[in-house]
Amino acid sequence: MLARAAELPSARDARTVADHDDPPGRDIVIGSGDDAAVIDTAGPTVISVDTAVEGRHFRLDWSAPHQIGARAVVQGAADIAAMGARTTGVVVSIACPPTTLVGTVLDLDAGIVAATHRLGARVLGGDLVAAEQLVVSVTAVGRLDGIAPIVVGGAQVGDELAVSGPLGGCAAGLAVLRAVESGGDRALLDRYARLVEAYRLPDPDLAQGVAAARCGAHALTDISDGLIEELRTLAAASRVRVEIDSDRLPRVGSLAAAARDLDVDLREWTLAGGEDHELLGAFPSGTIPPGWTVIGAVTHSDTSGSVIVDGTAAGALRGWQSFADIEPDGRRR
Amino acid sequence: MLARAAELPSARDARTVADHDDPPGRDIVIGSGDDAAVIDTAGPTVISVDTAVEGRHFRLDWSAPHQIGARAVVQGAADIAAMGARTTGVVVSIACPPTTLVGTVLDLDAGIVAATHRLGARVLGGDLVAAEQLVVSVTAVGRLDGIAPIVVGGAQVGDELAVSGPLGGCAAGLAVLRAVESGGDRALLDRYARLVEAYRLPDPDLAQGVAAARCGAHALTDISDGLIEELRTLAAASRVRVEIDSDRLPRVGSLAAAARDLDVDLREWTLAGGEDHELLGAFPSGTIPPGWTVIGAVTHSDTSGSVIVDGTAAGALRGWQSFADIEPDGRRR
Lengths: 333, 333
Description:
2 copies of one chain form a homodimer. Chain A has 2 domains: about 5-145, CATH 3.30.1330.10; about 160-165 and about 200-250 and about 270-315, PurM-like C-terminal domain (Phosphoribosyl-aminoimidazole Synthetase, Chain A, domain 2). In chain A, about 30% of the residues lie in helices and about 25% in strands. Chain A is built from 9 helices and 13 strands. In chain A, helix 3 crosses helix 5 and helix 3 (about 170-180) packs parallel to helix 8 (about 255-260). The longest helix of chain A is centred in the N-terminal third of the chain and has 17 residues, at about 65-80. Strand 2 (about 35-40) of chain A pairs antiparallel with strand 3 (about 45-55) of chain B.
C-alpha cells in the first residue's frame, strides 16, 4: 500500500499512503493515490469500520505487524460477509508514534495488502498519521451481487442456528500467551501453536457469508464479541428465544487439551471468547450450507429476546466488551 | 449516532455505536445498527478516510468536542468533493480513553451527526473503542451522479487555476490560539474570533466539488495540507508547471490585520497553512464556476512538475506534514 519507505517521514494523506502497486481492477475505477478512490458499484454497497488499538486489541510482542494488519482486514471483511456480501475493497487509517520503525509500518502494510488480496479485494486508500499509540482502523466495502442483505434481526421461530467454523481458538491462543507471560511453561507455545496462530490471525472462510445468503439465511452476523453476545444480539433484534447446546459447538482438536492444561472451562472460550470471526446464521430448517454446524434452534417468539444454553438461561457469561473487560496492557480484569 | 449514553460503558461495535436516530433514507438501504450498512449505489462510489488525533490535529482545550466531530466529517467530505462527488454517508471510528466523560463522546457524536446531515448525508455506522488518546477516523462515501471523477493529475497547459473560497483562516486561527497560550493579549481571541472559529470548524462549500465537475474541471483537489503542497501534487501528477500570484489568493478581511498583529508573513497562512478544505481546481480557460477565484494558470509541460509563486520557484515553503512539523503537544517545531 505504501508507495515507498522514503515517503514515510513526510506521510500526509491518502496520496502518500497510496498503493501505487495496487492498480485499478474489477470494481475499481480509481484506486488509491488521489483525494479519494472510486469504485464501480452496480448495486447496493455494504460498508463497515473496525478499529484495533495497541495494548487493547493487540500487542506488538505477541503478534507480528503483518499479522496485526491482516487481522484488521479480516475483522472488517467479516462484517461485510455478515451481511451476505463479498468484500471488494478496504480503506485503512494507521495512526502510530513518530518513533515507530519504518519497517514496522511496511510490515503492517504488507499484511493489510496480502489479506485484502486474499479476499479478492483491493486496498483503495489510506491515511497515515502520528499518535501516541498504534491504532489501525479498516473500513471495508463490499457488494451484494443481487442478493438481499441479511440483517441480524431476521431470525424466525423454527429456524436452525448454525456456525461456519470452529470457535474458541482465538481466546484459547490468547490464554496460552498470557499463561506463558505469567510464568507458565513455555512449551505451551509449541504444544498449542495452532491456537496461538488462531489468536494472531483468525482464518474464517468469509465466502460463507455469500453462501449463507444464497441458502436463504434469515439472519446472519459474525462472531466478533463471543458467541453468547452475538446470540443475545440476534435474539433481541429478532424478538425470539434461541436455544443452543454447547456440546455441539465446533472446535479445533487441541482446544479441550489446552482447557485442561490451563484449568479453564472450555465454554469460556467457545461461548464467551471473541474474535474468531466465524459466522452465525439462522436458517430455515434443512437449508444449512455445506460445512456449517448446527448448534441449536429458534424456539419461541420473545419480544425481549432470550438465550438458553444447555437448557438454562445464559445469564452470567459475557463476551468481549471494549471498555469493561480489558486493562490497558491487554489483560482481562 | 450513539443510541443511548447508557450503552457507552459496554460499547463494542457498529451495533452499539449505532445511529438508531438516523434511519434509512435516500441512498441508504440499511443504516447503522447491523454488522454493516448497505447503501444503494446506482453508479460509481467514491470513498476516502481521514483521521484526527488528539494533540496532533486538535486539542480539547481549544475546540469543543462537537467541533472536533464536525471538523472530522468536513475533512472526509472534502476528499469526496475533490473527486467531483457529493457525500452520501460516513462511517466513524472513535477511540478514546476509558476516563473520557460520556458527555464528551455524546457531544463529539452530535457534531458528527450535525455536520453529516448538513451535507445531506447519513451516519452509516461506527466503532467505539478504548485507547490512550482520542482518535477520530471518518470514512466518507459519495456519489458521482453520472459525472466522471476529477483526478488531481488532469491539469492541462492553458488551464486556469482557481480556488473555491478564502484561504489561511484556519492557520491564522491556530496562530491566534498559540499566541494567547504563549502569553499574548487575550483580546486577540475576540478581535480575531472569526479566524479562531475558522480553525475550530472550517466551513467550505463542498457542493462546489460537483459544481467544478459540471463546469468541466480538468483537475481538482481539496486544500488540506496548504495550497503550496496541493499545487506541488497537482503539478507533479499532471506533469506541468503551474504559476500563481499570491496577491490573488482570496482571504477573509481580518487576516491581514492578524498577520500584522502577530508579525507573520501573510503567505505563511494563505500559501502554507492547511486544513481550510476549500477546493483547488484547474479549468479550461473561461469555465470557472461562479464564486471561485482565479489565482494563476498552468503554463508549461514539465515532466517533474513545478510551482512558481510570484515569479519565483516555490522552494522553501512547506505545508502541513503530519510527522515532520508538529510536536506531540500540537505545536509546530
